Amino acid sequence: MIPHDFRRPLTIVAAVVAVLSLAAVAAVIAVAFANGVAPAWVTSTALYGLPLAFILMAALVVDSVWARRRQ
User: Fold this and answer.
1) Which of 43, 49, 40 is nearest to 19 (CA)?
2) Cβ count within 10 A of residue 23
3) Could you tell me the pTM of the whole model?
4) CA of 5: how far to CAs of 17, 30, 36, in Å?
5) pLDDT, block means (10 residues), the chain with 71 residues
6) Which of 19, 27, 50, 66 has its CA 20 to 30 A from that of 10?
7) In terms of Cα–Cα distance, which of 24, 21, 27 is closest to 56?
């Protein structure tokens, strides 16, 4: 179970990672549309950031459901 003090910061981190990853996806698409190649760090942010944000949010949701069922 995730301590209550860490839930809010983890939610903020997951949201920031998701927004940055979506911006990286948009940048990769824009560069590809201009017949270019995006830098490796932008591509890796787009590829790995969204799954990381999804896993963090899924863990928070499962923990929240688990905590409510224990009460």
Assistant:
1) 49
2) 14
3) 0.85
4) 20, 39, 44
5) 84 95 97 96 95 95 90 81
6) 27
7) 21
